[in-house]
Amino acid sequence: MKFTASQIAGILEGELEGNPDITVNKLAKIEEGEQGSLTFLANPKYTQHIYTTKSSITIVNRDFVAEHDLTTTLIKVDDAYESFSKLLEYYNQVKNNKTGIESPSFIAASTTYGKDCYVGAFAYIGENVILGDNVKIYPNVYVGDNVHLGDNVIVFAGAKIYSESIIGNNCVIHSGVIVGSDGFGFAPNADGEYKKVPQTGNVIIEDNVDIGAGTTIDRATLGSTIIRKGVKLDNQIQIAHNVEIGEHTVIAAQTGVAGSTKIGKHCLIGGQVGIVGHITIGDNVRIQAQSGIGKNIKTGEIIQGSPALNYGDFYKSYVHFKNLPKIINRINEIEKKIGREQ
């Protein structure tokens, strides 16, 4: 897929300096650019590289003034970083603009779908599924019965969406994601055996949610597991049954959230965090990586440690922990001295 400098300048509403007909078909870092690549300069500490880059086109801020000769064509914009991000988004839209039904695939007769949908080869779409406009279902995806996908949803290859799940508009489900598998519900009987508790609820994912590769979201025992609008989940996260995650919360990889826990809005949760079940985490909470959360957390707190402590308390305690051998030696010396004096 090739773009000319004039096409890119038009997309970004930028000012072009150089060859308007030069083409690019790939992206590169400014220091690693080569012919046919597009790059950008936003951070002044990389300015030196613009004079040696082999990239065909470079996006720069409007106030950039070259101090030496350039071999790259410039596109000047108000904000180079923002414009480059905009271009990446546009590129993805073009790249993912697939339509039509590939064969072999299975689509139940009761399925309804909107305009400009795409269903890849070996995909399975069950009974009474509703697909909105511009939905993209990549190869080897499973969509169970009674699932509803909103407009502009992308489900990448190999994802599994179990029955009754509801996914809103503009969501991205990456490869290997499983939405709606059974919650971990077992009850011991009189003989000490564990019997399965039927998981009869579903998963609801609201608008503008991104779910990273390999993440699993369990269906509720009763009711719904709910991922609110704007949530961003990294790869390999476990969300258990009846969990609710508030709007625009971001969770990093390998975090696990146990059943029936409620997480508030605009939280930032680091990687490898473990959160027990049946607790409430307030809004705007920040949890540092590898923390263990075993109790309710109030709105606005910053938490670290396992078991987790207030962020400030943790670091004050850690200073003493590092010095613990020295402190013990001093205590021993004091005890010896007191013993001699007695």
From TrEMBL:
Active site residues according to the UniProt entry: H241
Reactions it catalyzes: a UDP-3-O-[(3R)-3-hydroxyacyl]-alpha-D-glucosamine + a (3R)-hydroxyacyl-[ACP] = a UDP-2-N,3-O-bis[(3R)-3-hydroxyacyl]-alpha-D-glucosamine + holo-[ACP] + H(+)
EC class: transferase
InterPro entries named among the record's database cross-references: Hexapep, LpxD, Trimer_LpxA-like_sf, UDP_GlcNAc_AcTrfase_non-rep
Pathway(s) this gene product operates in, as recorded in its UniProt entry: Bacterial outer membrane biogenesis; LPS lipid A biosynthesis
GO terms for biological process, alphabetical: lipid A biosynthetic process
Gene3D superfamilies: Hexapeptide repeat proteins, MurE/MurF, N-terminal domain
Domain UDP-3-O-[3-hydroxymyristoyl] glucosamine N-acyltransferase non-repeat region: 21-89
Gene Ontology cellular component terms for the protein in this record: membrane
Molecular-function GO term, any one: UDP-3-O-[(3R)-3-hydroxyacyl]-glucosamine N-acyltransferase activity
UniProt-listed Enzyme Commission number(s): 2.3.1.191
Keywords tagged on the record: Acyltransferase, Lipid A biosynthesis, Lipid biosynthesis, Lipid metabolism, Repeat, Transferase
UniProt similarity note: Belongs to the transferase hexapeptide repeat family. LpxD subfamily.
Quaternary structure, from the entry: Homotrimer.
Protein purpose: Catalyzes the N-acylation of UDP-3-O-acylglucosamine using 3-hydroxyacyl-ACP as the acyl donor. Is involved in the biosynthesis of lipid A, a phosphorylated glycolipid that anchors the lipopolysaccharide to the outer membrane of the cell.
Name recorded for this polypeptide: UDP-3-O-acylglucosamine N-acyltransferase
Species of provenance: Cellulophaga algicola (strain DSM 14237 / IC166 / ACAM 630)
